[in-house]
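Subject: Protein entry, chain in single-letter code together with its fold tokens

Area: Proteins and the way their chains fold up in space.

Attached in line: The record itself begins immediately under this heading.
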Amino acid sequence: QVQLAETGGGLVQAGGSLRLSCVVSGGLFSINDMGWYRQAPDKQRELVAHITADGSTLYGDHVKGRFTISRDNAKNTVYLQMDSLRPEDTAVYFCKFLRTWGQGTQVTVSS
């Protein structure tokens, strides 16, 4: 059974940084893609960043140049480094592995 555990959310001022982590257990992490998504109140869940098994990355337009996704296959972990945070980045952030979602971690950016 695949399980995901996200950590790293919190409250930060605009312009600050946070790093999210997502540890995957029970699945073949190294050969599969991973993704980070977010959902703000009253909005649809949207793609933030995606990383393939070989390390190619894709970002949503709203985070390009500010967020960086990476992975450590030895630790079964995917990271999301978030810099230059804005109030509009406030949301619950989820990682996704195959068809399994993490429980989400709250990121709040104050102005």
